[in-house]
Each structure stands twice: as C-alpha cells, then as structure tokens.
Amino acid sequence: MSVVAAAELHAAMLRRGAFAGRYTDLTEIGDSGVTHRSVVLGGVDRTDGRRVVLKVRQPGLLSGFWRRSFQREGRVLHMLAPHPGVVTALATNERSTVTLRGRVVLLEYHVLEQGTGHLLMGGPGLKSSRDLLAALRTMCLTIAAVHESGVVHRDVKPTNFVDFRADGIKLIDFGASSILTEPASCDEASTLSRYSYPFSRFHAAPELYCGFGRNRSMYRGADIFALGASVYELWTGRRLMMDLLAPDTTVKLFRAFAGVQDAGLRLTSYRRMIEKIIGCVPLPKLAPGGERDSDVESVSLLDDLYRELAALDWRLRPANLRIVAARIERHLQSAGASRLDSRTAGHA
Q1: SS (H, E, C) 47-111
Q2: CA distances from 41 to 19, 34, 113, 264 (A)
Q3: Do strands 103-113 and 51-57 pair parallel, antiparallel, or not at all (unpaired)?
Q4: Which of 88, 100, 337, 342 is least surrounded by Cβ atoms within 10 Å, i.e. has the fewest?
Q5: CA–CA separation, 295 and 299 (whole Å)
C-alpha cells in the first residue's frame, strides 16, 4: 500500500460512521509495535461513554503471518483474562468496513481499555527508586503469570507498560506474542529465519542476535532480559544495548540487522559481536539519582535486580520472577514504603 493510500485509509477510519458508528472522537494515537503492523486509535464507546483503544490491523498487509499474528493476539488476551496486570480486551478480532476510492476495505480490530500513559521516571507515581521497585514487582508478577499461561510476550519494553491509574500498571501489545502450547507455523519459522529476532531490537536479548530467535525455548529468558533492560532504561533514560556497544559498533550492528540478507553471514557477524560483549563488557551500574533519590539501599537493590534480569548469559537469569517480586516486597515493607499499595497488591 502506498503512503498516499495509507494516509487516505487512516483518514477514512477516523470519519464519522466508521466502525458502525459505535465509537466517537476517534483520533490516531500511534502505530503499534511489530514494525507498525497496526494502527492505534483512541475514542469513546457511545454505548457506555468509556474511553477505549482500537487496535486496527493494517489492511494493506497481505502476509498470512501478520494476519495470523493479529488474530493470535486476540486469543492471547482472552487466555490471560482477567489478570489485573494485563490490558483488558473488551472485544477482539472484530470486523468493519470503510470505503476508499469506491472500494470496500475490510478492517480487523481489537477493542481495549485505555490507560493514561506510558511509564516514565518523574511521571505520575514514578518519582523514586522505591516507586520503580514497586513497579518492577508488578511487572515481574505479570510476566510470570503470562509465562505460566504458556504465553511469551516477545516485545517487553518500557512503552508496553502503561499506567491505568487506580488499576495500576498493565502490560499491553501482545502482537508479537507466541503461544508455546501451539506448534509454530511454517511462515513463523520463515519470518524468524529472515529477521533472526524480528521485534524490539533495542531490547532483545543478546542470544537472539546469535541466531537463537528460531528456538522457542529461549523466549522466556528473552522476556526476562528485556524486563531488566526496561528497568535500566526507565532509571537512566538510556538503552542498555546502546550503552554496552560503542557507537560505531552499534551502527554496524543495526545496519547489519537491517541490510544483510544472507542469514549465515548476518548471524556469524552477530555471534562474533555478542560473544565479545559477553566476554569483556560488564553491565553498567545504576547510580543514585542525586537530588531525585538519595535512597542508597533501594537503588542498590534496583541495581542488583536489573543485573540479574539482564544477565548477558541467559543461564544466569532468574528462573522464577515471583521470587524476584517477593524480594522486592520484603525490601519495601522493611523500608516502610507506602507505594506497595492496592495498585500492586492484587497482581500476585
């Protein structure tokens, strides 16, 4: 689909009467993950006045892999409901149509609850190391529950954790997820072979750059690494993999990721780079945030946990995220933290 046609289609989605006229005040609020395979709209459900998110699959995508990925996301959201740490799906795999240049275009979409914004240090409810520890506890319990349900997210990153105010922090965007109890389809294997690891390249675990993206047994550990990398990014404002690699090496790595078509050459290049990192580069240490945060003990625990979660050697990452969450809870209780409150207590 051309850029012009895509723009016209997006405008058609926002017109009054789209989606059977049920949703009003529609605005485009972004693209959704997985290389922008979906359009995300915000609006109001006329039946109950509730603010919702409509995640619409890009109609121009002809690949069966992306269509099935979108449909699988709907199934995953139903599998995980009603977990308090996972975004609530109000309806999935819905269908509607719009007319574009005299042609009827089919729209497939999910209807989700709408949060208030992505997590950001300094934002509402996330002012200190204790706040981030409380948030990390929720994240650990949520991802643990996702994994225990036989699902891996495969796109864990800060922008996929959203604040829902009274309902706390929730994990969103399961468009890249995989259901481990289901056999991998042939086109999924082909796509993973082409991209090595196609999602969230700035948060992907290093072993996935070494060609293990096709091995589904590695996915849980990769989610855990990405959680640790997310903690690092939230605290420092920087991306872990970018800090581990020198700038010129980073450019070379991601140019190779995007441009080299020969799978063997690409994976050999990744393997050499990542083995060098694992062998000689320590993870950066988190430092207290100066005037923002002088709680040395909480920052020290945050540093220890992020290093465990984001261990470059996947064999050293914690196997049980619930143990990590319990460790955080004991610290917050001993420190008298009030943020381990009703927003996070129900996520166990």
Answers
A1: CCCCEEEEEEECCCCCCHHHHHHHHHHHHHHHHHCCCCCECCEEEEEEEEEEEECCEEEEEEEEE
A2: 12, 16, 12, 40
A3: antiparallel
A4: 342
A5: 6
Which of residues 61, 93, 113 is at a domain's end? 113
| Whole-number CA gyration radius for the chain | 21
What mean pLDDT comes out for the span 188-211?
A: 59
Q: Are residues 80 and 147 in the same domain?
A: no
The CATH number covering residue 90 comes to 3.30.200.20
Residues 267 and 127 both lie in one domain: yes
Same domain, 99 and 167: no
Find tokens 């995300």 and name the residue: 40
Indicate the pLDDT class of residue 306, thresholds 50, 70 and 90.
Answer: very high
| Most confident listed range (11-20, 125-134, 142-151, 257-266) | 142-151
Burial zone of 113 (CB within 10 Å; 0-12 exposed, 13-18 middle, 19+ buried): middle
What pLDDT sits at residue 250? 52
The per-residue pLDDT for 275 is 62
For residue 233, the cross-strand partners are none
Same domain, 80 and 184: no
DSSP 8-state secondary structure symbol assigned to residue 6: H
> What is the domain range of residue 54?
3-113
Q: Is residue 206 within 8 Å of residue 278, measured between CB atoms? A: yes
Among 19-33, 39-53, 93-107, the range of highest mean pLDDT: 39-53
Q: For residues 56 and 86, what is the distance between their CA atoms, to the nearest angstrom?
A: 19
**262-284 residue pLDDT tens:** 556 655 665 666 666 555 567 88
Alpha carbon separation from 46 to 5, 19, 25, 69, 260 (Å, rounded):
29, 12, 10, 29, 49
- Same-domain status, 104 and 137: no
